[in-house]
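Ticket 4471: requesting a sanity check on a complex prediction with CA2. Repro inputs:
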Amino acid sequence: MAKRVLVLNGPNLNMLGTREPDIYGAQTLGDIAALCQSGGESLGLTVDFRQSNHEGELVTWIQEARGGADGIVINPAAYSHTSVAIHDALKAAGLPVVEVHLSNIHQREPFRHHSYVSAVAYGVICGFGAVGYSLALQALAEKLQ
Ligand code: CA2
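Returned structure tokens:
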């Protein structure tokens, strides 16, 4: 049976492709969703791709993933650097988590160097742009085999 992966995206990622292409690339979130759908299909994964600007909504989706998904790929965006709530929800979900960032957060401002999510992820991918999502799905497919 196909493994189910929840791909979550945090605040402002719905704005991708409209500004700062030098940092985040020119692709829209819709483009990345399509990449995940096709990449997931070829890996035998069912991908549920979502974005929210609201911390609580992301927490609720993570809670619902327990029982409804086999793994999580998450780009928590700015909440990476602030959210104990997302950290706690991911820990409680008990599912394998891969954290993705489009940009290399370690090359940027110091406040982006720490992520509350990294401690509950089994892997972190950053700096490869949209390709990072494909790499995350590939890693998760291996893990879920
Ligand atoms: O590099 C990443 O993927 C980030 O998670 C993106 C977040 C940022 O806060 C993290 O430090 C690193 C920001 C996403 C906002 O993206 C925009 C794109 C275009 C226009 C406005 C915002």
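Notes from triage: The pocket of CA2 is lined by residues 12-13, 15-16, 18-20, 24, 75, 77-78, 80, 101-103, 105, 112 (CB under 6 Å). Leaving this open until the requester confirms.
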